[in-house]
Amino acid sequence: MVGMQGRTMLDLGQRNELIVLDAVRSAPEGTSQSEVVTTSGLSRQAVSLITRRLRERGLVETDGTLAGSRGKPRTVLRIVPTAQLAAGVHLDPSQIALVVVDLLGRPVLHRSLPAPTDSPAEDIARIAGALRGMQEALEAEGWRTPGGATAREAMLGIGVASPGGIDVRRGLVVNPPWLPGWRGVPLVEELGAATGLPVVLDKDTNAALTAENWSAGQRPEERAQEETVLYVLAGAGIGSAVSVGGRVHHGAAALAGEIGHLPTGLDGEICGCGRRACLSRFTDVSVLLAAMAEAGLPDPERSGDGCPDSLAPLARAAQDGEPVAAALLEGYGTALGEALRSLVGIHDPHRVVLGGPHWDVLAPHVLARIEERVRRDAPPEQVVIESSRLGDGVGALGAAALFLQRELSPAVR
Hints:
Helix content is about 40%, strand content about 20%. It is an alpha/beta fold. It has three domains: about 10-80, Arc Repressor Mutant, subunit A, CATH 1.10.10; about 85-210 and about 395-410, 2-Layer Sandwich (Nucleotidyltransferase, domain 5), CATH 3.30.420.40; about 220-390, 2-Layer Sandwich (Nucleotidyltransferase, domain 5). The strands form four sheets. It has a five-stranded mixed sheet. It has a five-stranded mixed sheet with strand order 12-11-10-13-14, with helices on both faces. It has a two-stranded antiparallel sheet with strand order 1-2.
């Protein structure tokens, strides 16, 4: 089988080259060698030499000058976004989302496939075929790097985001909820064999937070070196992730951020875990669907495994004043707000970001209640609470960002 290319950024050289490349990438509006010297801690001579090599490889370009307070104008350095590509795959219970991104993590092409099935081997073959088709589509459109390379030649590798549990070190999808056929699947090995590309795997919550940290749309103050970010993913279940200085915390077994059984302190049913009123009893899609069915509300369209493609029917019913729908969303916001009160107290983040496949539909109905609960302990000057700007495709974007981070970030070397 013909591979999809795949080239490692380690060809660039040692860690210092990654430090310089990361400094330039982190300033999409442009930076200078003097600023890179300051932020990297490297010598002016080293930065000059490395910058020249990166320009020769087509990864960095000069673009005009910056006027300084003294001395001669400084040459602007920018990353060349289209110098390389990466692919992202999100194994969401409602669909398999795919994206190709440039070096700034910006989407170049999207695709979606039907939901994962009980046959992982067939699903992996579908993913490999779709990625191959995406490369062919870009080439048919005339896509090339500035140096003339095709999409296949420019493709670095693939990141995959999956619901937990997974084994990151061994590249296994172990026992994800809502994906009953995926048990002990060596996804990294099998997708790598099917595509000829290197593959990385992580939880979808970690991937989503990586996308937020990697986003070229970040405001300058959000790129603070030691910023702590708490991310909450609203999908089939509820999950979280935390990063400090751009590095996501995984924990000993990549299980950090499993918050579904966090007690909310509210009145509620006994959970299967034995606790009362766990967060998941208010936020899991399965719980919402059961309550909707009992109340006779319109049933959302579902994928083959029963996971809804959207919670829009629930949101519309609440908007129209249907009392059960309104109560469900009120409970969602209250419970998540109470959980976040605890998490903000534990992690002391600069920012709380909420996103995921269902968040855009839920946000207008629950965000204000979440903020009201969190603000009882954490005023606005302490922590910012905001919705993700990356939309419901953040899982696939995050998966691609996982691979870019592995290849481009000196922090993970």
